[in-house]
Each structure stands twice: as C-alpha cells, then as structure tokens.
Specification:
Strand 5, helix 7 and strand 6 form a beta-alpha-beta unit. The two termini are 34 Å apart. With 385 residues, this protein is an alpha/beta fold. It is built from 13 helices and 15 strands. The strands form four sheets. It has a seven-stranded mixed sheet, with helices on both faces. Strands 9-10-15-12 form a four-stranded antiparallel sheet, covered by helices on one side. Strands 1-11 form a two-stranded parallel sheet. The chain is globular, with a radius of gyration of 22 Å. The protein binds pyridoxal-5'-phosphate. The site of pyridoxal-5'-phosphate (PLP) has 14 residues, from helix 4. The site of pyridoxal-5'-phosphate has 14 residues, from helix 4.
C-alpha cells in the first residue's frame, strides 16, 4: 500500500541530501569535536559549518546558536535558564495554546512559587493582545509565546510581543519549532531573546535542535557537565544529526519561497476538496494567517480517532485533535482554548503537508475522505437518522 503522509507537523521525512550529508560522520569521520587531534578537529569544523548554515537561515550570528537534543530540550532550557538568571522575578506569561514542552514546564513551576499567567485566544486561535499587554509587569521574568501553533498553524505576532516585552525589560522566548523553515525569520532585526527549533520538523533527523540566544541575554545553562557549546550546553555533540540539521537549514533557505507557493496550493486544494464534499465540516484556526502546510478540519458529530483509523486503511496519515487519556477521549487543549464546540473539537483532523507531497496524493485523499466521514456518521449515535 502506498503511504500518503500528511502528518508533517508531527515529523518529516529526512531529506535525501540531508541523509547523504550525515553519512560520513558515522563510520569515517567519527571523532569527537572536542578532541585535540586533527581527526577530531575536522569534525569540529563540520559542526562549525552547520552552525553557520543554521545561523544563515535564521539571520543571526553563529555564536548565538546552541545545539540541543530537540524542541523539548530547547523549550525547557529557555524557560529554566531564564528564570534562574532573574531569581527576583516570579511571574511567567505564556498562552493557553502552547505545546506541552512549554505549557507543562510552566505549570510545574506553579508549585515552586511562580505565578503563571496563561493568555487566552479567540475563536480563530489569535492571542488576546490586550490581556498580554496588561499582564507584563515588573515581576515578570519571562514571556513565552509560540511562533506558530502546531495544531492549527495559526501564526502569532511574536515580533510585536517581543518588542512589548523588551520595552518593559522582560525576556522573550518563542517556540518556533513549527515556524522555522516555513516562515521568513530574521533574528538580526528582531527583539526575540531566545528561540527554540527542532530538526525533525524540517527534514532533518529526530533528536536534534537548537536554542538561539541573542547576544547579551542572560541565560543559565540547563545541562551541566562538559564545556561543549561554549559552556552553554554540556554533552558530546550529536555530530551526524548536527551536520544534517545544517544541511536541512541550507535546503530550507534555498527553497522556502518556491515551497511556500507549491505547498500552499496543495493544502488549499485539499481543504477545498474536503469542505465541498463533506457537509458539517469547517476549518479551525486563523485562515488568513497560518502556516501554508497546515489545515485543521473539524467534522461534526464523529470522533477524530475513528476517522484516523479508517483513513489508515487507505494508507492516509494525519493527526487528530483528541488524545486518548485514561480511557476517555480528551479534545485538544488548543481547540478547547479557542472555544470550538465539544462535538466539533472531538472530530478534528490535522493534515500537514510538505514539499514531498503531490497533487495526486491530494486527489486520492479527496476521493477517500467523504466516504469515511459518511460511513462514520451513519454509525454515530449523535447524528439523527
Ligand atoms: N514545540 C512544538 C510547537 C512542537 O510542535 C513540538 C513537537 O511536536 C515540540 C515543541 C517538541 O519538539 P521535539 O519533538 O523536537 O522535542
């Protein structure tokens, strides 16, 4: 069976060019980048080259890039590292729609004397800027707002928020895991202090990412131990993954404009095809301002998990907005924060595309999904027959 992979916000295929760039660093150039010998030195050069490639995509200086094990570590390091640096401030401001790598860390700090303010969003997933402005005060240690939402693709005005925070002398972190490689980001002109990204969302491998830390920002290292990464993140570098991440960033920079047009056309065609053929379905998120690869569609009165299982029979991979917790289906915290009705939040499906998808795949999904939805509605106890 052919796989139609429309789950690229979960993870992406490693680009063949990325895979090739990594290959020499397993069995040939396997030295330790910290070693004194020239064998290790050549590996250190490769790491340094990758740092330049990442910095070039982000429009920052290579010295501002710290390699990490991925988005989750970067988010943890950004939050914990900032708080330790400003011990006299006890307030953290974030949003209700962050990824758990931010939200759960912030919530865990509530038990340690921190006040956590979670800013709400409107029905399109747009952050409440008035509430945010009001919340930033002299006791605020950190504002952390994601660049783009992983479930709906909604893009947040992070540059504006970073400027608001900077004007009040407050550090600003953004989880840009879903944004890097999909949106133009130029950190040299930005007030963002700290930014997280993850390799496996842009065709590099899993388990590698970066933390950008603007020059002059106070951030206490989260991982203690060796002196790697200029003493800012201990642990022997994952060299093949870092080299691959550098290559993935180079490819993203080269192809971003072309891909934006291509992937948006595929996504729009998919969305239109589904909405036209499936009654009682609608798009969640800010349709005017979202990632070009993402559409989150609610199908009323049926469960997302059931849709996923039936699509899986055709090899179609996507994600649902519900997570099965302790035997019951919990609708996504993002859709709940947006006030999406219970009946629709349960039946939400996220399709997320990439440059490796085709119009033929989109046509296949448009052909199969209406039958899946009709069949499940026939079985649904919530639909009057
Ligand atoms: N932040 C966002 C917005 C994400 O979508 C993800 C992964 O889905 C993460 C953080 C975690 O990144 P990683 O899987 O690299 O730990």
């Amino acid at each position: 069976m052919n796989i139609v992979y429309f789950d690229n916000n979960a993870t992406t295929m490693v680009a063949p060019e990325v895979f090739e760039s990594m290959r020499p660093f397993f069995c040939d150039n396997y030295g330790n980048a910290s070693s004194m010998h020239s064998f290790g030195g050549s590996v250190a050069k490769a790491v340094s080259n990758a740092r330049e490639q990442v910095a070039s995509l982000l429009g920052c200086d290579a010295s501002e890039i710290i390699f990490t094990s991925g988005g989750t570590e970067s988010d943890n390091a950004a939050i914990m590292g900032t708080l330790v640096s400003v011990p006299d401030r006890r307030k953290i401001i974030t949003t209700r729609v962050e990824h758990p790598a931010v939200l759960e860390v912030c919530r865990s700090l509530e038990g340690h004397g921190y006040e956590v303010v979670e800013i709400g969003v409107d029905k399109n997933g747009r952050v409440d800027m008035d509430q945010l402005t009001e919340a930033i005060d002299d006791d605020t240690a950190l504002v952390s707002v994601m660049y783009a939402n992983n479930e709906t693709g909604t893009i947040f005005p992070v540059e504006k928020i970073a400027e608001m925070a900077a004007a009040k002398g407050v550090a600003f972190h953004t989880d840009a895991v879903q944004a890097v490689g999909k949106l133009d980001i130029n950190l040299s002109k930005s007030a963002i202090h700290v930014l997280s990204m993850s390799g496996h969302k842009l065709h590099a491998q899993k388990g590698v990412g970066i933390l950008y830390v603007k020059k002059g920002t106070r951030l206490t290292p989260f991982m203690q131990g060796g002196h790697q990464e200029g003493g800012r993140r201990a642990g022997t570098e994952n060299v093949p993954a870092i080299v691959g991440l550098g290559k993935a960033c180079e490819l993203a920079a080269e192809n971003m404009e072309k891909e934006k047009t291509f992937v948006r056309a595929l996504r729009d065609s998919l969305e239109k095809g589904i909405l036209e053929t499936c009654p009682d379905s609608f798009v969640n998120g800010d349709v005017e301002n979202r990632l070009v690869n993402t559409t989150n569609i609610s199908f009323e009165f049926i469960e997302g998990e059931a849709i996923l299982l039936m699509m899986d029979r055709y090899g179609i991979c996507a994600s649902s907005g519900s997570a099965c917790t302790s035997g019951s289906l919990e609708p996504s915290h993002v859709l709940r924060a947006m006030g999406v009705p219970f009946t629709a939040a349960h039946g939400s499906i996220r399709f997320s595309l990439s440059r490796y998808n085709t119009q033929a795949q989109v046509d296949f999904v448009i052909d199969k999904v209406p039958a899946v939805i009709n069949r499940l509605r026939e079985l649904s106890p919530f639909v009057t027959k």
